[in-house]
């Protein structure tokens, strides 16, 4: 009975090239001689995404002896706020207004809240600055709450996984060159790990605390093609 064919293995450690996408790679490559040739590699990537939305709450109130005066005081400012936001490019669906009217002792209290969602942060700052300048302390504007939409997070996960696959393939090509072969098609690609975390840096409370990071690790098996044959000139 013939002895089983042993698989020869090649281990390589290659330094990843610098990349703006912060891709890194780890290698464990094996050339399998049992019925075919394959190279197995692991690739990792790390990416970050800044928030794509911000929510601001604008609160205003008035307390008057007459109900109409309390309502009118708030409504005039409310109309100005909504008009300014629309002129600043904020769409109607991103503006939510709520009102509350009640009586306290001998006065009538009128309160209103405007919740605004911004996708353009330049518009956020310009709109808030304008309202502070025009209405001063008659309104209370909350600090922006930055967050990521589901589409933004899904895009981040997809891109970091593709980055890990790209890095794994690049490393597999380096291994094949090292042993004098060329890389073929991918046979198996499996994502082994996906991690997400939020930046806890307090250097810039406005943005950095909302930055999301994601890291992906994939294991990939590629086909190894035979050595290229060069035709001799006759």
From TrEMBL:
Any one of the GO CC terms: cytoplasm
GO molecular function, one term: kinase activity
Any one biological process term the GO annotation gives: immune response
Keywords for the protein's UniProt record, in alphabetical order: Cytoplasm, Kinase, Nucleus, Receptor, Transferase
Protein's cellular compartments: Cytoplasm; Nucleus
Pfam family, one: SIMPL
Domain of life: Eukaryota
Major localization class: cytoplasm
Family per record: Belongs to the IRAK1BP1 family.
PANTHER family: INTERLEUKIN-1 RECEPTOR-ASSOCIATED KINASE 1-BINDING PROTEIN 1 (PTHR18842:SF2)
Protein name: Interleukin-1 receptor-associated kinase 1-binding protein 1
Source organism per UniProt: Xenopus tropicalis (Western clawed frog)
Gene that specifies this protein: irak1bp1
């Amino acid at each position: 009975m013939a002895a089983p064919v042993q698989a020869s293995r090649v281990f390589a450690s290659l330094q990843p090239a610098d990349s703006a996408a912060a891709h890194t790679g780890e290698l464990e490559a094996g050339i399998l001689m049992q019925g075919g040739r394959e190279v197995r590699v692991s690739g990792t990537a790390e990416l970050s995404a800044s928030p794509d939305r911000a929510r601001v709450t604008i609160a205003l109130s008035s307390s008057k002896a007459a109900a109409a005066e309390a309502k009118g005081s708030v409504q005039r400012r409310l109309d100005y706020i909504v008009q300014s936001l629309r002129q600043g490019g904020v769409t109607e669906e991103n503006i939510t207004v709520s009102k509350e009217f009640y009586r306290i002792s001998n006065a009538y209290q009128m309160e209103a809240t405007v919740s605004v969602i911004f996708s353009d942060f330049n518009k956020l700052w310009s709109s808030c600055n304008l309202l502070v300048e025009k209405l001063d302390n008659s309104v209370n504007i909350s600090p922006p709450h930055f967050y990521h939409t589901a589409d933004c997070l899904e895009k981040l996960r997809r891109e970091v996984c593709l980055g890990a696959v790209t890095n794994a393939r690049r490393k597999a090509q380096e291994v094949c060159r090292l042993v004098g072969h060329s890389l073929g098609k991918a046979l198996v690609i499996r994502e082994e790990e996906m991690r997400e975390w939020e930046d806890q840096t307090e250097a810039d409370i406005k943005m950095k605390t909302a930055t999301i990071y994601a890291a992906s690790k994939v294991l990939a098996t590629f086909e190894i093609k035979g050595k290229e044959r060069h035709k001799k000139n006759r």
